[in-house]
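Open question from group meeting: does this chain pack into something compact, or does most of it stay loose? Before anyone orders reagents, we agreed to write out a predicted structure and look at it together. Recording both the input and the output here so the notebook holds the full record.
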Amino acid sequence: RYYNAFRLTKICRLPSVLNYLGRIERLLTESKIGLDQSLRRVINLNFLMIVVCHWVGCAWYIVADIGTEVLSYDESWRDADEQDESLSISHTDLGGFSGYLRSVYWAIVGMSTVGYGDIVPTNALETTFSTFIILFGGLVLPAVVGGLAAYMGSMNIATKFHKRKVAKIRSYLKKQNIEKSILDRILRYYHYLWARQGGVDEQNIMDELPGPLRQRVATFVNGDAISCVPFFALCDNTTRELIVSTLKPRVFLPNDVITQQGELGKEMFFIERGEVVVSSMDNIPFCTLSRGDYFGESCLIGATVRVATVRALTYCDCFVLSNDDFREVIENYFSPERKNITNAVAETIRSKSRRNSSISRNIIEHPKCQRNTTGEGSDLTEIVAKRSRNAKIQPDSKLKSAWSIILLTVCVYNAWSIPFRLAFMSSSYYIIDWTLDIIFVSDMFLNYMHFSHFQEGELISETEKVKRHYMKGNFKVDVLSTLPFDIIAYIWLKNDARLTAAVAVLRLPKLLRLCRLLQIMGDIFRFLEDLHMNLAPLRLVEFLSGVILIAHWACCGFYALARLKNSHVNCDGLDTGGDVITWGTAFAECRWENTWVQKQIMNGKLPVDGGEPWQLYIRSFNWALPTLAVVVIGDVV
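Structure tokens returned:
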């Protein structure tokens, strides 16, 4: 075994790990799986902590061998650990892996606290080593925990800044008594910008670049916007690059009027994303335009009046070319070339004008032909109405927030009750469970029919889109978490002793709903924020509730391990209230032998019969919460 010491030279390659991690991060970035910088630091720091615990655990294990085999000590910590009558430990279990687990266990509790006291040094060498490790942990661990806290606090800082900005805007507009419809549109505009750009101001970035580089970037990003415009084909590549570099991004929300018939046109629009409808002043639709189309080109030949109204049907991302920018670019052309471009623009305008006139005349004479023109309706009102068959409940409505509170209550109930019943075999309150299951069924119906949502910043409220999104998204998980599997167990095992365990196991899919807990909490906090409530205390309550819930799960798992330790032994029928045999009653010694419950009974923390379920739960929770909070008491091990 000691020959492995010659391989310690391999550790000299450890500094290269940082280079390897850097390469992995670059590969992830190139694969568009980029991680937030703070998240990368958290992952690296946790990886380092795991490696250090592994090293310390291995060193602690070999210190025992050095003490007995080299320094001739009579006993090591491993001998004392196996000989402790209050524990059921054998370092040869699991093929010797149990000894490694005990070493790493000591390393973790030794560096994070002063230990439980169940593993202690037994000689001078072990005492020296453990003193150094505890000192190292006491000095380094707070810095590591502080670093983790700082990294966690800086995670998603751009998202947090956006939320604070939106909260300030919402608060300001509410104080100014802005109409709710206008307020909603303003907030949706900011949400859409954030979802599309991620907090990056594209225009500022382009303005900071030098001219030639700005042209190349603009051509790569926006070049497709003018590639399908026929009159720009007369320009050379340099001119097209100059035109592209002058384009300005602009966003329009559904039902926004982009251009109005009769107004003076000064800008041309290129559609990058979304749909618009072109109509007359009498609301007669001429056509619908989408990605790759353009409109408003009449401004390029001078100050002209708009001949049609253009309205956004969906969220639209457009690029805008102003008359002044276009003229500045083509001033470099000789007069004949400039005239050719202008004539091409004019011909395009005349062609569209003739087409629009024909459409208007045909619609007046033959109304049914409108459906063949736009494929949707007989006039603009019908088209907009068709696009506006919306889900009734908006994401930020009071009804949605109230429903989120109800869902939160049901999720917390299941998260608390299901693990408790599974561990402590507590009888179920079937009527309550099935009543709350009806809420899950109702939630599926509402998500399918009535709950609109945001997708990439765009409010999706059209009923058909809402249905498709739900079927592709949370539908399968919701079905699995809603189906009443426990009723099957109740029917088949109604008078069977296994009923409680079967119902608890079959209700585990209900916990899948916890995946949406963060979304539910976000809806609730947004609602409370609209009521001008101070969220800081509520955030603290949220954090403490999360810690307590995780401690509850750990508590149930800790107790379940003790209960399952001797589950193969039939203890039914043994005396639960008789005299103490060794350290407890006959039933207690059968059920809890070689578990932490045995030690609790021997120390007088529990009655000699093991106690009631609530007593066992308190002792188990007394282990879980301090351990989770890294404040080890040591009376439950």
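Observations to bring back to the group:
The longest helix spans residues 37-70.
The longest strand covers residues 267-273.
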